[in-house]
Specification:
By secondary structure, this protein is mainly β. The chain folds into 4 domains: 132 residues, no CATH class; 126 residues, no CATH class; 152 residues, no CATH class; 57 residues, LysM domain (Membrane-bound Lytic Murein Transglycosylase D, Chain A), CATH 3.10.350. It is built from 3 helices and 20 strands. Strands 1-6-5 form a 3-stranded antiparallel β-sheet, with no helix packed on it. A 3-stranded antiparallel β-sheet has the order 2-3-4, with no helix packed on it. The two termini are 18 Å apart.
Length: 520
């Protein structure tokens, strides 16, 4: 008698933690940049350079990159920009992790404030939150069948599992060359660049992963010529491609997250040799997990009819895919300028990010709470401040429908923004509309007793002789045909045949004729 085993490849969380850090420093404007009179626009980004796991700790090392647009001093202020970075190193306590483990890190730049100390110095303050999670890959050897020659009864239990097939990191490059329209001047100097992705989707295919989305770009540049005109160029272009992935197959559940790595923008000549092309190269760092949904029948019980057969059991954890789902919610609000902000004449550019503050499982779904943070660059009517900007936040609450979700489930959420529309109502107020998009993958976790070994011994003849040769058994509440057969060492098929039964269902009060000894 031998167990037929199947190896199941799964992952589980080994340790996780979260923390916040505050960064603050004064930064000198480089000598190659003109003096600053007013700050008008800023952006921040977190770059992780090293993630080191030691016993019960995860150490993060990286930097906060910032980009600032400001107005120069003088009678005719012009927009200029500078960038810089603030390094950080943070050790986070995460019970259970060990040296050599891998860790996933999610960061959120909750706030960045850039102030002007004087014409040559900036103050930079930032609040960054981190969520770290260490996952381990493990194998669970599970009995799924029983090879036997002598009579034996066994049963199996159906189980739906999410077996991990691929776990890796990779990169996807996006390359685009964008030529400014014919009625735009040649590019003399780039002042500001904004390159972001939107509507990114991943799909598992045979041997590869499909990637597609949109690239939103915005450039503010100084044109060639005596007028030194300032121009804005903004457009959206689709991108698509594939990433090779051994072991990937169509229909697999893809849990893929990404962060933007390096972003390089160069000014290049067109075919006529004129500086009219923005060459963009963007790197997306992918964290890839692929799961194959499988229906498995695991061995759940066994008993002998000519031998004493006992199953050795142990509890095991199984992970199943409950749902892959997405949803959208609209947000809308108005943002008013303060009395100290210059009145608007024309909107040049708007950008927004989703900041998720809370995620929790509720009845029938996942409740999310957060903000859409918006920043708008505009032309103003002031001579000394021809350019300015305004910031605002729109709160949102949303419940993503996930039927059958419970408190024991785990989930991952990826958010994005669609259809951002910012309109000027008058010189002092903006109307903002957008759609928050949420993608979620939800897993359920079950503990099942699995059979690890079979112990076979001779029947206790004293025990067997104590059982009646023929008995009328009256079924009780909770009884099953399996329980009755195991009690009397009789095959289930024999009980069904003796009692002219077509199914194994019995009800309390049912009378069953049990005849011992036929199996022998």
């Amino acid at each position: 008698m031998e167990l037929v085993r199947k190896n199941i490849h799964m992952d589980r969380i080994k340790g996780q933690a979260s923390t916040q850090i505050t960064l603050e420093d004064d930064i000198n404007i480089s000598d190659s940049r003109p003096d600053a009179s007013k700050l008008i626009y800023d952006r921040g980004n977190v770059v992780l350079e090293e993630v080191k796991v030691t016993e019960d700790h995860i150490t993060l090392r990286g930097k906060l990159q910032f980009l600032v647009m400001y107005l120069t001093e003088g009678e005719q202020p012009m927009p200029a920009s500078m960038d810089g970075s603030l390094p950080f190193e943070e050790q986070i306590y995460a019970e259970g992790v060990q040296s050599g483990d891998s860790a996933n890190v999610k960061w959120n730049l909750e706030d960045i404030t850039v102030g002007l100390i004087n014409s040559r110095k900036l103050s930079v303050q930032a609040l960054i939150s981190f969520k770290v999670c260490s996952e381990m890959i493990y194998d669970e050897e599970t009995a799924v069948d029983l090879y036997h020659e002598e009579p034996v009864e066994y049963r199996r239990k159906p189980l739906r599992i999410a077996q991990m097939t691929v776990k890796k990191r990779d990169i996807f490059r996006v390359k685009e060359e964008l030529e400014v329209p014919q009625n735009y001047p040649n590019i003399f100097r780039m002042i500001w660049q904004g390159v972001e992705t939107e509507n990114v989707e991943f799909r598992a295919l045979e041997g590869k992963i499909s990637v597609q989305g949109d690239l939103n770009v915005f450039f503010l540049y100084e044109g060639e010529g005596e007028e030194q005109s300032i121009k804005c160029y903004e457009t959206t272009v689709p991108f698509s491609g594939t990433v090779d992935c051994t072991g990937c197959d169509e229909g697999m559940a893809a849990d893929i997250d990404y962060v933007l790595g390096s972003k390089d923008v160069e000014i290049r000549p067109d075919f006529d040799g004129e500086q009219r092309v923005f060459a963009i190269e963007l790197v997306m760092d992918l964290d890839i997990s692929l799961y194959e949904e499988e229906r498995l029948d695991i061995l759940s019980g066994v008993y002998g009819v000519v031998k004493e057969v006992e199953a050795v059991n142990k509890p095991a954890q199984f992970k199943g895919l409950l749902a892959r789902t997405s949803g959208k919610t609209k947000v809308a609000d108005r943002i008013k300028l303060t009395s100290s902000e210059a009145p608007m004449v024309q909107i040049l550019h708007s950008e927004a990010q989703v900041q998720l503050e809370e995620e929790e499982i509720v009845e029938g779904g996942i409740h999310m709470k957060g903000y859409v943070n918006i920043q708008t660059l505009y032309l103003s009517s002031g001579e000394k401040t021809p350019y300015s900007s305004v910031k605002g936040s729109i709160p949102f609450n949303y419940v993503l429908d996930v039927p059958d979700i419970n408190s024991g489930c785990t989930f991952k959420i990826r958010t994005g923004l669609e259809q951002l529309a910012v309109a000027m109502l008058d010189g002092g107020e903006l109307d903002v509309k957008a759609v928050v998009v949420c993608h979620a993958i939800v897993f359920e976790h079950k503990t099942e007793n699995i059979v690890t070994d079979i112990v076979v011994s001779d029947l206790d003849m004293n025990k067997l002789s104590g059982l009646p040769g023929i008995v009328i058994y009256i079924a009780k509440e909770g009884d099953s045909l399996w329980d009755v057969g195991k009690r009397y060492y009789v095959p289930i098929s024999q009980i069904k045949e003796t009692n002219d039964m077509t199914t194994e269902e019995i009800k309390p009060g049912d009378k069953l004729l049990i005849v011992k000894g036929i199996a022998n």
